[in-house]
Amino acid sequence: MASKQSNVAKLVPVMIAFFTMGFVDMVGTATNYVKADFALSDTMANFLPSMVFLWFFLLSVPTGLLMNRIGKRKTVLLSLVVTAVALILPLCGYNYPVLLASFCLLGIGNTLMQVSLNPLASCIVSGEKFASTLTFGQFVKAIASFIAPILASWASLQFGNWRLLYPIFLVFALIAIVYLSLTKIEEEIPKDKTSSFIDCLKLLGDGSVLLLFLGIVAHVGIDVGVNTCAPKIIMERLALPLEKAGIATSIYFLFRTLGCLSGSFILAKFPLKKFFAVSVCLMVLSMIGLFVCRSLAGLYVAIALVGFGNSNIFSMVFSRALYYLPERSNEMSGLMVMGIIGGTVFPLLMGILSDAMGTQTGSVIVISMGVAYLVYLAARFLKEKTA
Prior knowledge:
- It is a single chain.
- By secondary structure, this protein is mainly alpha-helical.
- It has 2 domains: about 1-185, Growth Hormone, Chain: A (Up-down Bundle); about 190-385, MFS general substrate transporter like domains (Growth Hormone, Chain: A, Up-down Bundle), CATH 1.20.1250.
- It has 17 helices and no strands.
- Helix 4 (about 70-90) packs antiparallel against helix 7.
- The chain is globular and about 60 Å long.
- The protein starts with a helix and ends with a helix.
């Protein structure tokens, strides 16, 4: 009983860190305000969020190596410090170069956190409850993502300054730093010699590791892809203005958040591979809906299904990866987070195919390719003897 209470106490600062992980999703909201404040072109404005996601590709594997040297908890603490500095910069000066630096640091901090926080949670919770814990962490993260645009809008309307969002989030980052620094978490020290960058990439030569890595690529690609094209599909098929079609994104995030919350309980009782299969089936139904539906209600249902179905894929694939090679968990974590590059690859392919076809159906085809891969992965999971 005491051990269980001790684990809960250790999980609290980890969950606060998951909340700060969601700060990265404020970049979309911030970019819109910055573009208006400085009268930026689309190219200049879109350069800001690109500075965030670039670091997932560049630093994910090196972060895994860093964890081998300094440990998981210290790596998470470093990520929180970098995130705090990123939030402080816009409060010291408000111009494009400062914001560019802030977004870069936010991306670096989030990369460090994405790679190290999940393995840190595995030091507290293990076995079948691990995937459930990761899913609950994703739910906590989703809360920050969900409230960021609401807080920015409230601050802008009430005080004429959307940047009040920064000090509000900064408070949570500082709380996470203090709480986690005072919390002792036992970690296993890697017994083997320190791996090199090339050693980590060589893990992709293992067929199972490659399959899981591509699962993360597909998951993130679907996530970003649906956010990008859902309003466009509604505008194209129903001739609605962006102001009305934009609610599609809110519906996606709502059901993604609900999916994370329910998934944290379902995975505690339900076999992972079966829940993975059910989630993928919902996404298949969603793709059918996005192809054939011509009514607003039908498209909303399709968007809700993919939001709910895709909400737990990351946690399930990630937990599989860490337990496939537990002795290489740090390097595996870095590789899996590097798969977030799917959020860059999918929209690019969607744009190319949609322009070539002259319709958003091209985007749905690309997203469906990601879903098709997850169907294949689900079939592989179901054949395995493990849960």
